[in-house]
Amino acid sequence: MSDRVTERYAGELPMAEADDAADRVADDAVVLVSGFGSVGYPKALPLALADSGRDLELTVVSGGSVGEEIDTALVEADAIARRYPYQSTPEAREKVNNNEIAFSDRNVSSLGDEVQYGGLVDPDVAIVEAVAVGEDWLIPSTSIGQTPAFVDAAEKLIVEVNHNQPLELQAVHDVYRPDAPPNREPIPLSEPDGRIGDAKVRFDPEKLLAVVETDRPDSTYTFRDPTDDDRAIARNFGSFLAEEMERTPVFEEELYLQFGVGSLGNALMGELIDLDFAGRDVVYFGEVIQDGLLDMLDAGRLECASATTLALTEEGQQRLFEDVEGYAEDIVLRPTDVSNDARLINQFGVVGVNSAIEVDIYGHANSTHVRGSKAINGVGGSGDFNRNSLVSVCALPSTLKGGEISRIVPMSFHVDHTEHDLDVIVTEQGVADLRGTSPVERAEEIIENCAHPSFKPALWEYFEAAKEQGGHIPHDLKRAVEWPN
Amino acid sequence: MSDRVTERYAGELPMAEADDAADRVADDAVVLVSGFGSVGYPKALPLALADSGRDLELTVVSGGSVGEEIDTALVEADAIARRYPYQSTPEAREKVNNNEIAFSDRNVSSLGDEVQYGGLVDPDVAIVEAVAVGEDWLIPSTSIGQTPAFVDAAEKLIVEVNHNQPLELQAVHDVYRPDAPPNREPIPLSEPDGRIGDAKVRFDPEKLLAVVETDRPDSTYTFRDPTDDDRAIARNFGSFLAEEMERTPVFEEELYLQFGVGSLGNALMGELIDLDFAGRDVVYFGEVIQDGLLDMLDAGRLECASATTLALTEEGQQRLFEDVEGYAEDIVLRPTDVSNDARLINQFGVVGVNSAIEVDIYGHANSTHVRGSKAINGVGGSGDFNRNSLVSVCALPSTLKGGEISRIVPMSFHVDHTEHDLDVIVTEQGVADLRGTSPVERAEEIIENCAHPSFKPALWEYFEAAKEQGGHIPHDLKRAVEWPN
Predict the structure, then answer these.
(1) From CA B55, how far away is CA B71, in angstroms rounded?
(2) Per the residue annotation, which of B68, B168, B271, B287 is the catalytic one?
(3) Which three-class secondary structure state does DSSP give residue A147?
(4) Which sign, positive or negative, has the C-alpha torsion B374, B380, B386, B392?
(5) Contact A416 B418 (CB under 8 A)
(6) How far is CA B333 from the centre of its chain?
(7) Is A287 a catalytic residue?
(8) What angle do CA B270, B279, B252 make, to 5 degrees?
(9) ipTM computed for the complex
C-alpha cells in the first residue's frame, strides 16, 4: 500500500479530554456512533457522558450492536431517550421493553440512507472510533458499519483514537459510500474481495469538533462451545448444501455463504471446515467475521471473506491483531450499505444462513419479539440476507429452555421474515425445503422434518384443527394464541 | 431505431395450430408463461390446453397476473395443480383457498432467479406472447415480466404471435437480463429512461417448439372511478409529499414515484396531476403503467415512466396503441428483475406508494391474507418497493365494506410488510409518519391520524388493554383474536 498511514495523528487536530468533548454534546443531541458487532464503537465519550451527572436525553444511532460503554453505562445513567436500530444488552433491552427507551428496529443495510436522506433523524454529532485521524479523514477500527454515512450526515464529528486497536487494521478496510440518490451509480463491485475505495473515511474538516484518546478494548463476543444441537444443525445444513452444489451451475465453481452473528452462526462456520466442497472456492459474503471464519481461513478452506465487522472473541481478536496484514489478503471490511447490499447479495448468488427465535409451520420467522411483544435484540442484517439471498436458510434448534419450549410454533405473532422470503428451514431434526410449496405443504414439511418429536403431536393436532377452518394458510387463531410459546 | 423489425415473422419458423402445439405440452409440465399486470400473456395455447379434455396437472408460473384464458379457463378445466407467484381471478382464488391449487406467493422481483437458479421449479416449456418472432429472438407484447429469465430457463419454447398487439410495441421495450450469479455484473442503468438492451428476447433456436398465431385481446383492467376516499387519500398523500420535497436534497430537482397496481394506485396517479411539484421533474419508476400515468404524460406533468407492464384499461390501451412510438419517447418497459430491482429502487431514491388489506397499529401490513388465512391475490411487487424505497408509503382507505370493517387493526395475522419496512401510513383520515417512532408511538400516530372515527374508541381500548400486558410491542393476544376483522 503506497498511501499507508504510519502515524495515528496527522495535521493540526483539536485534541481534547473526553470530559471536555462530552460537554460539547447537547443534552438532547442526536448522536450517531460507529460500531457493529459490538466492536469498533466509541468508548471514552460515552463513559464521559454517562459520568457527567447531566440530565441527558440522547438519541443514539449505531450501525449495529455496540458495547457496554454505550448500551450499559449510558442506559444505566438514564441518558438514552431513543435508540436505533439495534441493541443487545440486558440493560437496554429492559428499558426498551418498559418503553423507557423509544426503540425502532430497522434493517441495517438501509440505515445509512435512512439517517442521511430518509428522515429517520436530524443528526447532530457523529462519534467515531478510529485507529488514525487527519484533518479531513479517519481510519475506522474493528468495524465500519454505517460510519461513512454517519460522518456525512452529522453536523459535527468527534473522533476517538483507540490505541488498543492496531493501526494495521487499515489494511482490511474498503470504504465506499454510494452517492446521493437519485444520481447514485451502481456499486461497482464485481469480486467479493475487490477494492472500490480505500481505508479512509473522508469528512468536511469544519465538522471536526474534537479528537479524544482511549485505550479501552472492545466488548468482544463470548461464544458458547458448539452444542450437540449446533453440530447436528451443521450436519443437516451440510447435507443440504452438498445437494445444492450439484443442483445449479451457479454453485459449480464457487460457493458464496453468509452466516448470521451468534453462537450458532459461529458454530456453523466452524463445523463447515469438515464439509467436502469438492474443489469449489468457498467465499464468505456477509456481515460479520467470527472466529469460525478465521479457522476456515487458517485451514485454507476459505477463499476470502467480505463483511462489515470483525465480531470476534477476545482470543479471535488477538489472533487477528497478531497478523492483520496477513489476514488482510483475504479479509475485507466494507460499510454496511455495501456488505449487506441487496444487489450484491443477489449478484453473488449467496446462500444465506440466519437464525430466528421461532418459525411457524407456514414458514414465517420471528427473530425479534417473544409472543409478538417482548423485544430481544433487533432484526439486524438477517432481513437483508433472507430477502436477497439466492437460497435463504433459517437455521435454529427445534426447542429452547432444555426442550421445554418448541421453536416451531403454529403461528408467529411477530413476523420479521415473511413466507415470501424463506426457502429452507434447518433444525437438529432435519431439513424442510419450502421452495415451491403451498402453505399446507410447508406445514407438513416443517412439522415432519424440523419439529422436535416431543412437540410433533401437538403441532399435528393444531394443523388438523386449523385445516377444519379452511383457507390457503389454515389457522385456528384462538388455538394459536393458547400455544405456550 | 436502425434495427427496427417491420415484419411479424423472420426466417424458418415451426408454425403450428394451437391445438397441435398444446399436444406437445406434457400433462404434468412446468409451464412458464409471459404476462404481467394481466396483459401480454399467451391466450391461444392456454385455451387449447383447457379445451383439450386431457387430464392435466400443470404447474403454471407467470411473472405477475395474467388474464382469464389462464387463471379462469385453465382453472375451470382443473388443469392447474400448482401456481406461482400471483393469481388474481375469483376462480383461481377459490381453488387456492380450497387447496386444490398449490399456490406459493413470491416477491416478483426475484422470481426469474428463483425459476432459473433458485430451485423453485424444473421448467419444461415457456409459452410467450410476442408481437414478432425470428429463429432465435422474439419481441414481447404489452408486458415483459420475467420473459427473458423464463425463456432462458425452460427446455422448450412456444411463441404466440398476437396480431391484435401492435408491432410498434417494440419501441417501448428495453430487454436486459442480468448474467448468472456469481459473476453477475451490476445492472448498468443510471437513468430511469436509459436503454441498456433492445427490444428482443434472445433464445437458443433449438428450444423453439412451435409458433402459434392469435388475435385475442388482453384481459385489460377495469378501474372504478375514483371515490371520495381515493381523492382524500390522494390529497393527504399530496400534503405529505409537499413537505418531503422540502425536507431533503434528494427530492430537490427530481422526484421518483412508484404506485402499486389497482384502482387506488390508478386514482393516486391521476390525482397527482393537480399537485404542485414546483418545477421538479417527476419520474415514475415502478412496475405498472396505468391510465393515470398516461394522463400525467399527456398533461406534460411526467418526465418519463419505467415499468414492466402496460396494465391499462381497454380505453387506455387503445390510446397507447394509437401512438405507441410517441409514448415510447417517455415510456420504457423492462424485465421485472430490472423494473423491481432492489438496488435501482434504492439508487433513484424512490417514494413508493402501495396499498394493503390492513395495517396494524404497530405498522405491520397485510396485503395478501384475510385473518391470516384466506388468500386474495398475492404480494406482487409491493414488497420490493416497500423494502427498498427511500420512503415507503402504505396508502389505504381506513375502512372497507361501506365502513363496517376497519382496515386499521390491533394485530395483522398475516404480515407481508414488516415494521422494519414501512415509513408512512396514509388513509383518507390523515397521515401517520412512523419514521423513528417506537411501536407505542406508532400506535398513537396510526390510531389518532389514520383510523376511522367510528373505530378509534375500540382501537384505543385495545391499545390501553395491551399496554397493561407490557412489552415493546404491547399486545393482548386473546383480545386481538376477538377483533372482528
Answers:
(1) 17
(2) B287
(3) helix
(4) negative
(5) yes
(6) 13
(7) yes
(8) 100
(9) 0.97
